[in-house]
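Q&A log
Question type: sequence-to-structure
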Amino acid sequence: MDRVIGWSTVAVVTAVTALLLTLMQVSSCADAAPGGGGTSSCTTQPLIGVAGSWIAGVVGAAVVGVSVWQIARATRSRAQDED
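Response status: OK
Response body:
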């Protein structure tokens, strides 16, 4: 039972962290000088960059997948021990 709780905790913490890292956005704006005739522009990108978001998402999904696999193994092993 302790292994199931431990792996469940790892899965939840990893999933929340990966979601925050991949979904948080940073915006920056460059305003044109008044009377200069330029245009203002704004950009939005992921907090840790596009590549960082992909890495965080893939690593997070892998860790959650391993956690689910370990939970299934621990549950199956416990069920076989009870038989």
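Response note: The first strand starts at residue 25 and ends at 30.
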